[in-house]
Design goal:
- The chain has 274 residues and is mainly α.
- It has one domain (8-229).
- It has helices at residues 8-24, 28-42, 44-70, 75-89, 98-115, 118-121, 132-136, 150-165, 174-198, 202-225, 236-245, 248-252, 256-273.
- The radius of gyration is 28 Å and the shape is elongated.
Amino acid sequence: MFAFNPLQPVTDAMLGLLNAIHGVIPSYGLDMILLALVVRIALFPLAQQQFKSMAEMQKVQPLLRALQAKYKGNPQELQAATMALYKEHGVNPLAGCFPLLIQLPILLGLFWAINSHLKDFARESFLWIGSPVSHAFPQIFATSLAELDMPLFVLYIVSMYVSVRYGSPPSSDPQQAQTQKIMAFVSPLMIAYFGFRYHWASALLIYWLALNVLTMAQQLFMYRKYGLIGGPKTAVEPAAAAALAGGKSSARQTPPAAKGGSTSGRAQRRSKRS
């Protein structure tokens, strides 16, 4: 079916891992769920690093907006100041892309592994797939894990929407927040189009659905751990942002010592008059 596979080593590794799991648990439906769990655990350190970077990025957002206001109209100085800010706080804006880049070969490798061995999945059933009901309504339900199952496909599309829509912490930038909402609709629609057109095997859908559920659970844990949702705000950041913007508010304030001195001076004048 596939004459050339540039990810053949990844495909062989995923197929070998799947066969090893199948040797212990002879159910490809459960095997796909366990495979998603193994992949999620293996990528956990990278995901943790990603969320650490996201937490640091969220902390420097006030300072970054202050720099944008201060160097408005001067892109060269803004770029230099932004890089210096990232270096000072140890932030890497591209750190969040690494887990995605690593997951993509795994997804494609598993896709080729399953599609090149569809005959093995054509004899497998799972839950309602392959049941008498599926044989009575083959237009809706898959009769094996090698066929497209519409209820499972709908569940995967819904999980894709939730994962994309709520997979990133709320953005304070209105434009970025709007982009997240648009992508939450566009990505599932694209997946739905290609999945329906090419009749993805139910085995793939089980893996992707399980991976989405595990990913969302991990994201919720990481959000709470690193304070990405409802995290405490420090008082240092607004002050630093005001200083970067020009420190106008601090210049307008009268020092407490000066206020105290004028009060004592008025008290002395009153005592002399009395």
